Amino acid sequence: MKIHIADGESFEAEEGKNLYELLKKNKIYLTASCGGKGSCGKCRVIVKEGTVRVESYGKLTTAEREQGIVLACQSFPEGDITIEIPIESMLTVGDKIAVSRTRDLFELLKSYKADISPLISRIRLTLPVPTLDDNISDLERLKRGIEEKGLVLEYPYHFVSNLSDSLREHDWNFILCYQKESNTALSIEPPVEKPCYHGIAVDIGTTTVVVYLVDLCDGRVIDVGSTYNSQMRYGDDVITRIVHATEGGGLKELRHAVVNDINDLIRPLTESHGIDPEGIESVVVSGNTTMVHLFWGLNPAYIREEPYIPTANRFPVWQARDAGIKIRRDAPVYSVPCVASYVGGDIVSGVIATKMHTREELSLFMDIGTNGEIVIGNKDWLMTAACSAGPCFEGGGIKNGMRATNGAIESVRIDPETLEPEFKVIGDVSPIGICGSGMIDAITEMFLAGIVDQKGRIRDDLKTDRIREGEDGLEYLLYSGETHDIVLTQVDIENLIRAKGAIYAGASLLLKEVGFTFDMIERVYIAGGFGNYIDVEKAVIMGMLPDIPRDRFRFMGNTSIAGAYLCLMSEEMRREAERVASMMTYMELSTKGTFMDEFMSALFLPHTEMEQFPSVKELVFKER
Amino acid sequence: MKIHIADGESFEAEEGKNLYELLKKNKIYLTASCGGKGSCGKCRVIVKEGTVRVESYGKLTTAEREQGIVLACQSFPEGDITIEIPIESMLTVGDKIAVSRTRDLFELLKSYKADISPLISRIRLTLPVPTLDDNISDLERLKRGIEEKGLVLEYPYHFVSNLSDSLREHDWNFILCYQKESNTALSIEPPVEKPCYHGIAVDIGTTTVVVYLVDLCDGRVIDVGSTYNSQMRYGDDVITRIVHATEGGGLKELRHAVVNDINDLIRPLTESHGIDPEGIESVVVSGNTTMVHLFWGLNPAYIREEPYIPTANRFPVWQARDAGIKIRRDAPVYSVPCVASYVGGDIVSGVIATKMHTREELSLFMDIGTNGEIVIGNKDWLMTAACSAGPCFEGGGIKNGMRATNGAIESVRIDPETLEPEFKVIGDVSPIGICGSGMIDAITEMFLAGIVDQKGRIRDDLKTDRIREGEDGLEYLLYSGETHDIVLTQVDIENLIRAKGAIYAGASLLLKEVGFTFDMIERVYIAGGFGNYIDVEKAVIMGMLPDIPRDRFRFMGNTSIAGAYLCLMSEEMRREAERVASMMTYMELSTKGTFMDEFMSALFLPHTEMEQFPSVKELVFKER
User: Could you tell me what percentage of chain A is helix, strand and coil, using 3-state DSSP and rounding each to the nearest 5?
Assistant: First the structure.
């Protein structure tokens, strides 16, 4: 019996097992908060050919059933079948390319000369065995031993409840685990020859959630998982999420959504590496201020109302059980500190990942996620601002948009003569959709080929079958497959221009406010989940990046997860993140009268003021 | 319809309600961990006359049913009935005499010049309202305000999770509750004109559990509840309990038993005073070391094994949810510190209740509970030791023994001519049983009247119907009622002599060890649950108390609960308790070769060495 994934691989399957299990065996992981018990309704797949025996449709609507949608965990193939997996159902786990890209992180940590010092500290203790003459209680004996090492700790109930047996089991010779930030004793462990501890770094993006499974002893990223943030069903950006949170029960829904996403990723990550989830002993989360609030279930309402106040920017170190993360119950969870309501821990992470705050040179940091955030400064000062770009570079709000994972078109060339496209797909498989870097390429190539004009309008007077009328008006056909097409629609292009316009306008205004111009910037760091390599030239032509010498740009990938990794590995990095958060001065752009002008001017390809883009001006004139 | 309690009151009852409810309405409280849902099987009563409709017998055995035992919460009277309530089923709540005896406690607190400073501290805060210019996060704003008051706190997840709404609800003007010992923020409250907070002081005795409901603002004891420690079904003394704890699941059983007892008492105490149990915001427990370990679910096994090590003597302040006490979840629970495995917080409580550690004079403190503990010393030093007395002075192991509550015979006179007894019953009701003070009276009167000899044997050659053959050999009939008799058996007398012998031998040996004799003691403090006033003269004649001038004796009642009350009310008293615990030097008597000799000599009335009891010697010779 064979299972064929539409536009993807095929594999042999055992009979009598459900689709969720069969896919998992072949390392295709579906989201399933319930672990495949039919209750969460998330592991949806579409049966395209063949039949499956369905035990339960759960809460699927009639309309959904008619489309062939089933819950994988409730469906048993009866012979060869072909299925399609909607991207919302996919977890990306075990992506070797993604893991290989993490190799430099440990080097980055070393470049800070930071020790390995995770959230749980350990000391070896050997206590004198009690006698009639030295008969103090077990807890007092332990305290005495700990105080001799210069430590004063708190002893929570959970720790003491099993203390007497633990001490004797280990013959008064053991390792004490404690949490330094909260000065709390956590547990007693046997001394081991080759210690091996695991932690997870989490980037909670508005659109995507990324989890790194990390070996805390050698700093190796064992594996990487990512998925869409399921909060997306409640709104695309932070503002709509905040609005949802303030509606009855909304906060709980949003919290559960993202916590389930993280748990969903932890399950296959640990399973496939034979690691007990209980052995995951620390977590660092990095995200924008609203995401971190929603993760902890804190009311984000006041982030949105003037004077824009979050519950916290610095979060105490709480525990996995407080967060609802299904690992060791008392695992400390550190949140990378935030700066203000609209500049969060993801940006603080970005700064420490770039090290811009350690250098003399003037740098600009741009995080092109669903929120666009900008930081400018050097080792002496840091200014920051935010502008809402929307989720399109991460695949949200774009008809065939997707994250930068296997099957995503990541680069595009369009022949200016034939208007025919060529493209590269991540993982060299059939394309499923298009990711941020592909979109930047596509729109720029369409502009250069004359398919769209400076205002981003698709021309309807060109002789090509590639331009056609679609559901959302005109669209450009990038790929036509057996089961689906991949297009870029007029609406997609308008969204992309608004997104790049917001980013450029934000950076431009922040620079003006501090009295600089783009050409004074010595280094531009670009971060974001739009793909891993964007073509600078094209991003400049599009008007997203400033028209300055191309060698000043550095692509950093996901710096939020990089910062989370650094904080997971080292106490010095946590202190560094806190120092950076204090250094950063937030500027509220939306209250500046000039922001709207800047934004409107940027809603062109590349810009209404062509003198800001001299090299593009030259190129366009040359091409025409 | 009338309900008649055998040998007690009668009252009118509504139809259609179960017996548990009907009794409760008349302020007769039965133990019922399940709250009257038929699942705990504790609210047993015996139907003597009349019929009840039984909905369920739960786990009652056939033999039990045949005796007329029913579960009160599952039984509906069908007409007039007479029932008997076994003392194990009784909670004593709302005992006005018990409450009136607590009146001096606040005076005692004042005599220490101690402030009222319960476990939860409060400060009034008014924070500046956030503005665009002062836009730090809520948590940072709160911290700033708190730090201005000179405090540095930890902020647990639970506290922060609702912070933003709380601050705004109270318009930035509120009271912050925090726990000083653990430096932990607990909650935010509206400012109130007339604050009213409640706490409970708990004495966990091996045999009885006593709870004081206290108004934390004025120090008033609102009400008192007491019940048998249900751990009794697993053994009479600490050793048998420890043995049970080390058997599969035993520790859990013992823990639940005592925690349920406390919860059982809290329910009627709060209900009858219209207090929300969630409003009970702090707890102090005082008990011997084993009892405190069992209360917290800590393995007591190593208390019993040489070198006799408890898990802890000083317990961190943990929370009600850790303990399983059904009040405010994060209510701090303070355990009065213990000294050693066999001298616990109850004795430290005793010392601070007597103030012997503040005086020049040499004092002896004797706690005559199930464990006999002795302290000797003054303001400069304190020595302590323990000897197992057994539960008989609290009613355990004595055929008609009971606690000193309503219905207990508390004093006895026996006419030496007729051998007929006269007695006084607590509450002036028909007698149900005999409490410790009554037993001391009875045995001494029997000795003086010649009913028992110096070895405690009941004589069978006397012309009286009062002496008869019972199930356990000879017995003396104190009271003959319609439904039951009250007797003192040969076995009871042997148990009482062993108990008083252990106490006297312990005190005697401890004195010898420190080089003193009884006549050098300027003050003897007697504590214990044996009754409220024991007749010193008779206790001396019996050989329980030393034969020294009678005006040196002070009866203190339950000093364990008194110490718990002091610690509940004031931080200074908690520090005082800790200081006293450190001052006390424990001496292990059981390892002294001479203890057995001392004990054997004390197994007579009053003692084998009559010269230790000169006044008794004279009296006995005069009488004969």
Answer: 35, 25, 40
pLDDT in tens, B262-293: 999 999 999 999 999 999 999 999 999 999 99
Q: Which residues of chain A have pLDDT under 70?
A: 7, 529-532, 623-624
Pick the CATH number of A120-189 from 3.10.20.880, 3.90.550.10, 3.90.800.10, 3.40.50.2300: 3.10.20.880
B65 phi, psi to nearest 5 deg: -60, -40
**Is residue B113 exposed (0-12), middle (13-18) or buried (19+ Cβ within 10 Å)?**
exposed
Asked if A309 and B132 come within 8 Å (Cβ–Cβ), the reply is no
Helical ranges in B376-457 per DSSP H? 436-448
Q: In sequence order, what are the residues at sequence separation of 6 or more whose Cβ sits closer than 8 angstroms to the Cβ of residue A62?
A: none
What's this model's pTM, rounded to 2 decimal places? 0.88
Q: Find all residues with CB under 8 Å of A515, minimum gap 6, and list them.
A: none
Q: Which residue in A has a C-alpha nearest to residue B167's C-alpha?
A: A311
Give the C-alpha separation, A199 to A169, whole Å: 27
Q: Give per-residue pLDDT as tens, B81-112.
A: 999 888 778 888 877 878 888 889 999 999 99
- Measure the CA–CA gap between A173 and A61, rounded to whole angstroms: 60
Residues of A with CB below 8 A from B132's CB?
306-308, 588, 591
Distance from CA of A562 to the nearest CA of B (A): 25
Closest partner CB to B157 (pick from A135, A318, A588)? A318
Report the CATH architecture of A355-390+496-623: 2-Layer Sandwich (3.30)
Which of chain B's residues have a Cβ under 8 Å away from the Cβ of A139? 311-314
Contact A308 B157 (CB under 8 A): no
Regions of chain B short of the pLDDT cut 50:
none
List the one residue out of A390, A383, A288, A284 whose CA is nearest residue A341.
Answer: A288
Q: What is the DSSP string of A359-422?
A: -SS-EEEEEESSEEEEEEE-SS-EEEEEEE--SGGGTTTSTTB--SSTTEEEEEEE-TTT--EE
Question: What is the separation of C-alpha A492 from the centre of its chain, rounded to a whole number of angstroms?
Answer: 22
Exposed, middle or buried, A99 (CB in 10 Å: 0-12/13-18/19+)? Answer: middle
Q: How far apart, in whole angstroms, are the C-alpha atoms of residue A408 and residue A403?
A: 7
- Cα-Cα end-to-end distance for chain A: 57
Interface touch B135/A309, C-beta < 8 Å: yes
Contact A132 B164 (CB under 8 A): no
Instruction: For residue B189, give the 3-state DSSP assignment.
Output: strand
3-state helix, strand, coil in chain B (%, to 5): 35, 25, 40
* Pick among 3.40.1160.10, 3.40.50.300, 1.10.3720.10, 3.30.420.480: CATH of A96-103+198-335: 3.30.420.480
Query: What Å distances lie between residue B58 and A426, B18, B342, CA to CA?
Result: 67, 15, 39
As assigned by CATH, the class of the B2-85 domain is alpha beta
> A2-85 and A96-103+198-335 share one CATH topology?
no
Question: In this predicted structure, what is the pLDDT of residue B415?
Answer: 95
Cα separation, A544 vs A367, whole angstroms:
12
Measured distance CA(B587)–CA(B376) in Å, rounded: 11
Nearest CB neighbour to A135, from listed B140, B298, B308:
B308
| Residue count of chain B | 624
Res B246: pLDDT: 93
Residue spans per domain, chain B: 2-85, 120-189
Tell me if B164 and A302 make a contact (CB, 8 A cut-off): yes
Contact (CB, 8 A) for B341 and B303: yes
For residue A371, what pLDDT is reported? 83
Neighbours of A418 (CB within 10 A): 10
The pLDDT score that the predictor gives to residue A620 is 83
- The total of other beta-carbon atoms located within 10 Å of residue B515's CB is 7
Residue in A closest to B324 by C-alpha? A157
